[in-house]
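Ticket 4471: requesting a sanity check on a complex prediction with UFG. Repro inputs:
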Amino acid sequence: MTKYLVVGGAGYIGGVCVEKMIDRGDEVVILDNLVTGHKENVHPKASFYQGDKGDSLLLDKIFSEHQIDTVLDFAGLIQVGESVKEPGKYFQNNLGQGIDLLEGMMRNNVKKIIFSSTAAVFGNPKEVPINEDADKEPINPYGEAKYFFERVIKRFSEAYGLKYTIFRYFNACGATTQSKEQHSNESHLIPLIFQAVKGERPNIAIFGTDYDTPDGTCIRDYIHVSDLIDAHLLAINIMESSSENEYNLGNGNGYSVKEVIAAVEKVAEKPVPVVMGERREGDPARLVASSDKAKKELGWKPKYPEIEQIISSAWEAEINPPALKN
Ligand code: UFG
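Returned structure tokens:
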């Protein structure tokens, strides 16, 4: 049976991938250092190894104990602001350890990778929607490390015949029946709005109201985590015949911060206490994906394209949290 190694499989997005793979009958191995992932998020039907993706000995052990067909790499640090303050940490984790993972794969003759990249590789886009060929000029170490690693993957493809699919996620959010978004030091908009609704924080601050957008607040492309993972499962199907793939993954619909807050108010049927704040450093005004390529080549179709559907699933998980897996 084909085995998949899901690196970062105890995290939010990786956890949904494991859940969906196991539901469809795949055999899954998880590697996660549990720095930002959660032990209770490890699927009981997956084999689990705790450690870094940069740990060569552990990689050799995993690859010798399991016949891995494809590696899916979700593991990485994701906070843009932190990356500006501590760049070394981001280059070390998201780039350096990624190279160690690729070297481990090559040593063990594992030649397929699906890699989680980010819209942050585009920096301040010249045009929206953003297609795959748009200029990649990241404006922070987070986006830069991801972009450099994309380049490394391509070089490994040239040198060793590595087959790859790179996905650039826009704003992943939403929940499934088994997994919800939870980060320590939460910085993401929707979970923070929920905290404000529940009285766990006094309010939500809107970071900037003077952007060049219709209501002055930043516009993002929010994509349901379940749709995101469906694209990965479709990519697995094409990688035998198509070896060099890269896709932007979003809905193609932009929503402003104010629109997201209004959608939460509607779904939760509660008011959100809001304050107007200063701009956050490094925030582009608009990030909206063109996902035409993924739709055309993978046959991908988001099932939850509307912001209210996405927020409903996340709110449901918030008030009725998914059962622990272990
Ligand atoms: N925002 C607020 N108040 C908050 C938090 C966020 O107004 O308290 C705003 C931000 O300024 C931004 C929007 O809400 O305009 C979304 O912010 P998030 O922090 O939720 O997400 P980002 O768009 O900054 O970042 C996300 C991922 C990154 C990825 C990026 C690429 O978290 O990993 O998308 O688009 F790089």
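Notes from triage: The mean pLDDT is 95. Leaving this open until the requester confirms.
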